[in-house]
Request: fold
Amino acid sequence: MQIYAEETKARWGHTPAYKESEERVKKMSKQDMAQIQKEADVLMNAIAAHVGESPDSNEVQMLIATHYQNLNHFYTPNLELYRGLADMYVSDPRFTAYFEKYAEGLAQFMHDAMHVYCTRYSKKV
Reply:
């Protein structure tokens, strides 16, 4: 995990989101992190159950909204960051592998659903 921490700091250490995340994580206990991971696992399984469906369905979009809001554990998300995160899910094989352990095609499905979310939400702003 240290290599990922170093890579993350090298790539985004200069950004406000990285600094905010660093501060929030410092305040978390091991129990907090375990609970966040448990919630993420439940959410990923729920989203994975919808792979093969339309990423713009209301049910999928409600789950993606939860995913977006859960980022608040680490930093205050915005649509630009969220689109970038979606893109990383399919462009970085490490992210893709993480999602594929839940369901084949989940990384692409997440990407597509997250982009739908960003497009819908940006129209409401």
